Each structure stands twice: as C-alpha cells, then as structure tokens.
Amino acid sequence: MLTVENLEVVYEDVIQVLKGVSIQVPDGSIVALLGPNGAGKTTVLRAITGLLDVHRGRITKGRVSLDGAAIESMAAPHIVKAGIGQVMEGRRIFREFTVEENLKAGGHTAARADIAEGLDRAYAMFPVLAERRKQTAGYLSGGEQQMLAIGRALMSKPRYVLLDEPSLGVAPKIVQQLRDLIVQINEDGTSVLLVEQNATMALSIATHGYVLETGRVVMDKPADELRADDDIREFYLGLRGDERGSLRDVKQYRRRKRWLS
Ligand SMILES: Nc1ncnc2c1ncn2[C@@H]1O[C@H](COP(=O)(O)OP(=O)(O)O)[C@@H](O)[C@H]1O
Ligand SMILES: [Mg+2]
Q1: What are the DSSP calls for 109-173, one per residue?
Q2: Ligand 1 lined by 41 (C-beta under 6 Å)
Q3: Is the dihedral of CA 121, 142, 92, 59 positive or negative?
Q4: Among the atoms of ligand 1, which is closest to the Cα of residue 195?
Q5: Residues with CB under 5 A from ligand 2 (ion)
Q6: Of 18, 30, 171, 242, which has the maximum CB count within 10 A?
Q7: What phi and psi values does residue 242 have, to the nearest 5 degrees?
Q8: How is residue 241 annotated by DSSP?
C-alpha cells in the first residue's frame, strides 16, 4: 500500500499548495486523482517521487509511506528502486534520442539482462515502438510519445506507477488505447495512481477516485459512486451539454456545495 497522509506542501517557502491531502493506493488498484488545473495533482506526485526540491517545493507536514515505512525523506532514485515509477506531465522523453535509447534510460539502474527483458516487454506491449525502435523519439506522434514515456517508466518493473495526465493532448482514438494499456499494466501486477482531467476515462477504469480542489480532497469515493454522483456528472463529466466538463463552473459548484470546502 502506498499512502499519503495529511500532506502539506509549500513552494518557495511561501506558496502553500497542498493543505492536508490524504490518499491511499492499495496494492493491485487503479486510483484516480481528479481535479481542475492548478488543484495540486502534479504536486502530490512530486511529493511521492521525491522531486519536490527540484521545483523549490517542500513537505511541511504529513507523510508519504510505502507498506507503512516513511519514504518522504528518501532521494528520488531510491524511491524508484523502492518500486515507484512515474510518467511526468507532458511526456518528458528525450526527443533527440531513439526510441530504444529512451527505453534503456528507464532501465539504467537495472542489470544488462533485465534491460533486455524490459525491452522485450515494452515492445510486446507497444508494437508501435518496436517498429520504430531506431527512430528519433521527437518525431513520434503525441500518443506514441506518451506510450514511450509509459514504456520507459515500466522498464524498472515498478510495483506502483504514477501517471500524470496521460490523455492530455492525445487524439480520442489513442486515449482509448492508452486506457486499455493502463488496464493491462494493472493486470500485469502494477498498481496505478492515475492523475487525469479526463474524468470519464479515469473513472471508467479506476477502483477508487479522489477529487482535489485548491489543495484539498473534496471527494473520496469508490469510482462507481463518483460516476453516479450528480455533481461529478454535471461538473466533471459534463453530461449537461458542456462537453469539457464545466471546470469553469467550479465557482458555482462551490456555492452549491459549500459543505465541501
Ligand atoms: N515550482 C513551483 N513554484 C511555485 N508554484 C508552483 C510550482 N509548481 C506548481 N505551483 C503552483 O501550485 C499549484 C498547483 O500546481 P500543480 O500541482 O501543478 O496542479 P495540477 O497538477 O493540479 O494542475 C498551482 O497554483 C501552481 O501554479
Ligand atoms: Mg498537473
């Protein structure tokens, strides 16, 4: 179990972005972390992977633990070794490297045999990458780059993988493929924390979901309950004629749901 408890995070010692966030990712699960732009979703992932300091951020309160042991003071490479992989926002691949070089970079801590096995696994899961293994990564389509970023994170055979908005900027048809891949990754034994603004996609595969707004968890429910929740349907899934999920109606949402904040 991966656990975040009462987490508070501050950037540059002044800007408090997380105000007591608690999230659990049980072994074997897909957990969705939803919420509008700026809510603090990426910050939660940075706190888990030890990358806050790179962004002049700091945990001021709370803890992150893996199977009950605190990991919030561990350095990023050790967190990867402990079994937590991540795909950052905006698929940060090495654009000038080939597909295969990118994948190998994800397995840099592994032995040679493990790298070969990791490549086989990645190419089996993403045939499109196998076809382009010698191609420069920067020339791949958005969806292919996202697959490469995911394949790279899986090279370390993580127990947990954190995905930051994999569907962002990806064509709808490819979003379906990514969705199926996330299910497959989970079935292969990796637990998933899925950050998404695409609530429809995320809730269609998640077991549990959290909604984050301005640094606080305002909803914490099984995914099927979130799918059935009228406010979620209205404001995040956009089932009232507003195709983008009405995130700009958050103010109205708050007014109507004061008890949430
Ligand atoms: N390095 C940083 N320094 C200062 N503020 C930051 C930094 N990174 C993010 N923020 C701010 O923290 C808030 C949450 O950001 P983020 O975690 O990226 O949200 P989300 O991923 O939900 O869009 C935003 O207001 C953002 O501007
Ligand atoms: Mg983000």
Answers
A1: TS-HHHHHHHHHHHHHH-HHHHHTTTSBGGGS-HHHHHHHHHHHHHTT--SEEEEE-TTTT--HH
A2: yes
A3: negative
A4: 21
A5: 41-42, 89
A6: 18
A7: -100, 105
A8: S
pLDDT in tens, 194-252: 999 888 899 999 999 999 999 999 999 999 999 888 777 766 655 444 444 434 455 55
Task: Give the integer Cα–Cα distance in Å for 212 and 126.
Answer: 32
Distance from the CA of 33 to the center of ligand 2, in angstroms? 11
Strand partners, 81: none
Q: Each residue of 87-126: pLDDT tens digit?
A: 998 778 999 999 999 999 887 777 787 899 999 999 999 9
Q: Which domains does the chain have, with CATH numbers?
A: 2-83+158-260 (3.40.50.300), 92-157 (no CATH)
**pTM above the 0.85 mark?**
yes
- Cα separation, 203 vs 32, whole angstroms: 7
Nearest CA to ligand 1 atom 12: 17
Strand order in the sheet with 160-164: 84-87, 160-164, 191-196, 30-34, 208-213, 216-222
Containing 222, the helix (H) or strand (E) segment is strand 216-222
Burial 63-102 (b: 16+ CB within 10 A, else e): ebebeeeebbebebeebbebbbbbbbbebebeeeeebbeb
SS3 41: helix
Residue type present at position 147: M
